[in-house]
Write a structure and sequence with these properties.
single chain; Glutamine Phosphoribosylpyrophosphate, subunit 1, domain 1; six-stranded antiparallel sheet; about 30% helix
């Protein structure tokens, strides 16, 4: 909520209450359950406070869902701003629920902060993202590495997934050790740091980054208005329904971003009061060499987010594909696409291929030494808006998502 308020204070053009009104109306009057919502609601049966989603026999697609307690919270925010949330019924119930984990002084401290973005160059463009503790640095890092590799012009060529996967693996293999709240994002993107990684990649065979010395429900949206103001934004409960804990009397589920903390004593991302965990959220924005807006893009998908965005950037900027083609194109991803891609040794890591992957990918990757998991299903719901050479905007929403939407208004 602090993030929303900070964005509105700096960039908002309408009263905040007007912006919240449509959400409040949906919460009060109800909305039809999507197939994705209906299917996942079974996972929270029996969770105290999750009554909005409970139906005899389970929630079915198309059934009306109302959230009156959430509507009341939105009304409180519209009327009292920050105090209506952190100092209202939600804040009081959160303190009681935490049983000492949270205090009034914790909630009185504004949580949002403005941070300088970090960026790297690739394929004639500048790629911008959020700094640590976000894993966003992996997007420009892997794109810079890939830009110096002999990436083929045909994405069906098995060298395409091989080289992009190698770039992603070398960029991120040490993420659990180097990513924490106070990590220097610019240093993580230094070409002197990335150049040896690029040089280690072989075009015709798999290479293994060094083994690490330590063991180890996201929504994306983007928008561009007539003035060129562009937004690349992610909201997330982390894994599915978050912590499966509802703040009593509010209907609000708590997120479980704490899964990014490390429990190893002395680790820079060790769980401690006042610290922010490393996290997967990695929205991206692209500019041209003269700093004009070129694209906004991003995705859900846990640790796979930078890999998905890398593939989109390669198709959009290197391959010249339109947004719809790039977003719908088949993807690869490391591991199972969850929150533990970087756990274990690199030699154990597999490349998973969506069922729609070109026939040449799997045998070509195996020839290069990769362990391949074909027919792995889909990962990531990505969205893109790009400024074309003629100045018009084109956008695409991911067909993998049952509830995605691309619209020009």
């Amino acid at each position: 909520m602090d993030g929303w308020l900070a964005l509105h204070e700096r960039f908002g053009r309408l009263p905040f209450a007007d912006l919240l009104a449509p959400a409040g109306q949906l919460a009060n009057n109800g909305f039809a359950a999507s197939p994705l919502l209906a299917g996942s609601a079974r996972r929270i049966e029996g969770v105290p406070g999750a009554d909005d989603y409970v139906r005899p026999g389970g929630l079915r697609p198309g059934e009306r869902v109302t959230r009156p307690l959430v509507a009341a919270t939105l009304d409180a925010i519209a009327g009292r701003g920050r105090e209506g949330f952190y100092g209202g019924a939600f804040g009081e119930a959160l303190i009681a629920l935490g049983a000492g984990l949270f205090t009034e002084s914790d909630l009185a401290q504004p949580l949002a902060r403005w941070a300088a973005p970090i960026s790297g160059s690739a394929w004639g463009h500048r790629i911008w993202t959020t700094p640590p503790p976000s894993q966003g640095y992996l997007i420009p890092a892997s794109a810079w590495i890939a830009d110096g590799l002999p990436l083929p012009g045909d994405p069906d060529d098995p060298a395409w997934p091989h080289l992009l996967a190698e770039a992603a693996s070398w960029a991120g293999h040490d993420r659990p050790d180097v990513l924490h709240e106070h990590a220097d994002g610019r240093s993580l993107l230094a070409e002197s740091r990335l150049a040896p990684r690029r040089a280690s990649i072989a075009p015709a065979e798999r290479t293994a980054p060094p083994t690490r010395t330590r063991p180890g429900g996201t929504t994306y949206l983007c928008a561009v208005d007539a003035t060129g103001m562009a937004v690349s934004l992610i909201n997330s409960n982390a894994a599915g329904w978050g912590a499966h804990i509802v703040v009593p009397g509010t209907g609000i589920f708590l997120q479980n971003r704490g899964l990014g903390f490390n429990l190893e004593t002395g680790h820079p991302a060790e769980l401690a009061p006042g610290r922010r965990p490393p996290h997967t959220l990695a929205p991206a924005l692209v500019t041209t060499a003269d700093r004009r807006l070129r694209a906004v893009l991003g995705t859900m998908g846990g640790d796979s987010q930078p890999q998905i965005v890398l593939q989109l950037l390669a198709r959009l900027l290197h391959g010249g594909q339109p947004p719809g083609t790039a977003v719908a194109a088949p993807r690869w991803f490391l591991g199972d696409g969850g929150f533990d891609i970087w756990a274990g040794a690199p030699d154990d890591r597999v490349i998973s291929l969506e069922r729609s992957a070109p026939p040449r990918w799997a045998p070509g990757l195996r020839t290069r030494g990769h362990t391949v998991r074909p027919d792995a299903g889909s990962v990531g719901h990505a969205h893109v808006i790009i400024r074309r050479a003629d100045g018009l905007f084109a956008g695409a929403a991911d067909p993998r998502a049952t509830g995605s939407l691309a619209a020009g208004i």
